[in-house]
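Here is the promised in-class demo. Please do not try to memorize the tokens; focus on the logic of going from shape to residues.
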């Protein structure tokens, strides 16, 4: 048995979720991929996958073996990559985890340039608003906002985002425009962003004259995904607090109006986080250097306050 080939086959089956897709990506017959996995299971003396006619399930032993062997495969890629370093050709698979609105509005619009610069890097994006275990989930790096909690990770500052409070014109026509944060407690409907990690709503944050404040009020709706959170605001379901880059397009075309702009809170930090290691893979290093150059301006996108007057005039005249 070619154990290295069998490990690659197992990894691809688990990542693809089926033998058929794994065989296609490896350019092998399905029977060959299936035999490699069976031989690996016989060699180890454990069942790695549970197969039925309808589904494929990874056993606990399979999950453990995959996590460990994947690191070996990636180390081998790093070794191969080191020999290409002198020629400036980083290669291999790079797995990046990023939040929903950050992927849509910041990272993905920038990626064509990166893919053109480094055609031998295979990029795999995991897009969700939940925290991931970089080692357990086999991720090279994550892009996230907020403070870093784990001392076992390395963080590089990527810039700061503007936090704004906004609502749809139809909502403001019905409920009025609050003049100061405390008014949110007086009959307004809020759509809270709920943390996928804690299950708790994130408080609305404000700041004026250097004095920060939080408003904790009952919310009419809670949503734990950033794109859906903004969509609820556009649908006039209530007031939200979100990143300026995420709301910029809707503000520009009048679907949203910024409110309480004089109480914008402090900017929100974003960072790229990766595991501590003596050797940073070349593919991760070039991605990080590229991101540090292009990401800060994109994430800091700030709606022009004049957009509020334009949008407000638009919905007032149509009333």
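The designed amino acids, position by position:
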């Amino acid at each position: 048995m070619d154990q290295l080939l069998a490990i690659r086959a197992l990894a691809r089956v688990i990542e693809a979720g089926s033998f058929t897709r794994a065989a296609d990506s490896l350019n092998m017959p399905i029977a060959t991929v299936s035999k490699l996995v069976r031989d690996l299971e016989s060699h180890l003396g454990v069942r790695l996958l549970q197969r039925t006619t309808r589904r494929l399930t990874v056993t606990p032993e399979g999950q453990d073996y995959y996590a460990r062997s994947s690191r070996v495969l990636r180390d081998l890629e790093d070794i191969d990559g080191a020999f290409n370093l002198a020629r400036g050709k980083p290669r291999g698979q790079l797995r990046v985890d990023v939040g929903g609105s950050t992927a849509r509005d910041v990272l993905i619009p920038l990626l064509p340039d990166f893919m053109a610069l480094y055609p031998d890097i295979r990029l795999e994006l995991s897009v969700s608003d939940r925290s991931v275990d970089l080692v357990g989930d086999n991720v090279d790096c994550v892009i996230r906002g907020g403070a870093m909690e784990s001392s076992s990770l390395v963080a590089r500052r990527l810039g700061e985002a503007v936090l704004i409070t906004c609502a749809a014109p139809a909502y403001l026509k019905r409920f009025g425009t609050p003049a100061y944060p405390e008014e949110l407690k007086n009959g307004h409907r809020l759509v809270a962003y709920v943390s996928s990690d804690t299950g708790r709503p994130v408080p609305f944050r404000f700041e004026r004259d250097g004095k920060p404040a939080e408003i904790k009020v009952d919310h009419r709706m809670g949503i734990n995904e950033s794109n859906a959170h903004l969509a609820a605001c556009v649908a006039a379901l209530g007031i939200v607090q979100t990143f300026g880059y995420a709301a910029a397009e809707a503000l520009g075309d009048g679907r949203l109006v910024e409110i309480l702009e004089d109480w914008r809170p402090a900017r929100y930090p974003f960072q790229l986080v990766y595991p501590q290691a003596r050797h940073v893979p070349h593919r991760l290093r070039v991605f990080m250097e590229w991101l540090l150059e292009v990401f800060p301006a994109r994430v800091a996108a700030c709606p022009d306050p004049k957009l509020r007057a334009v949008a407000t005039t638009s919905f007032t005249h149509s009333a």
